[in-house]
């Protein structure tokens, strides 16, 4: 569902972020196509293709600001590639190795059991399950 510029600005302000021109432009690209998983390089490419003059460093900084504000969720799938998920609810993922694509696991009865006790003074905040897929040989 596409959001208007005013809705994006309000969403940024509600998250405690100043709605700068670059933040608004990147947020419009991120949230215009529904739930998705993007690496910073993918968003940078989309921005350039859309005529948004922004550096890769600005994209990284903005994605981390959005994450810290609760607008995105970080998903570390590959050692050198971090994905940013626009769906911040607790859910799990498939990772298609050949394509480097992340896909949400449909809501199911997936349960993670027999977790170890966390260290003293700590609690489990979230559990990310990533199921790696490859084509049958």
From TrEMBL:
What family is this protein classified in? Belongs to the Fur family.
Main subcellular localisation: cytoplasm
Q: Which CDD domains match?
A: Fur_like (cd07153)
Lineage, broadest ranks: Bacteria, Pseudomonadati, Pseudomonadota, Alphaproteobacteria, Hyphomicrobiales
Q: Where in the cell is it found?
A: Cytoplasm
Give an example GO molecular function. Answer: zinc ion binding
Write the protein's name: Ferric uptake regulation protein
Q: Which SUPFAM superfamilies match?
A: Winged helix' DNA-binding domain
Q: Mind telling me which InterPro entries this protein's record contains?
A: FUR, WH-like_DNA-bd_sf, WH_DNA-bd_sf
């Amino acid at each position: 569902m596409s959001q208007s510029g005013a809705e994006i600005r309000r969403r940024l302000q509600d998250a405690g972020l100043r709605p700068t021109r670059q933040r608004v432009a990147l947020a419009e690209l991120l949230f215009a196509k529904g739930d998705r998983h993007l690496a910073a390089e993918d968003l940078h490419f989309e921005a350039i293709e859309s005529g948004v003059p922004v550096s890769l460093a600005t994209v990284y900084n903005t994605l981390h600001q959005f994450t810290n504000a609760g607008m995105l969720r970080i998903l570390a799938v590959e050692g050198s590639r971090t994905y940013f998920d626009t769906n911040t609810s607790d859910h799990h993922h498939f990772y298609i190795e050949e394509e480097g694509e992340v896909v949400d696991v449909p809501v199911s009865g997936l349960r993670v059991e027999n977790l170890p006790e966390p260290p003293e003074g700590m609690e489990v905040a979230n559990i990310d399950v990533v199921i790696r897929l490859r084509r049958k040989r």
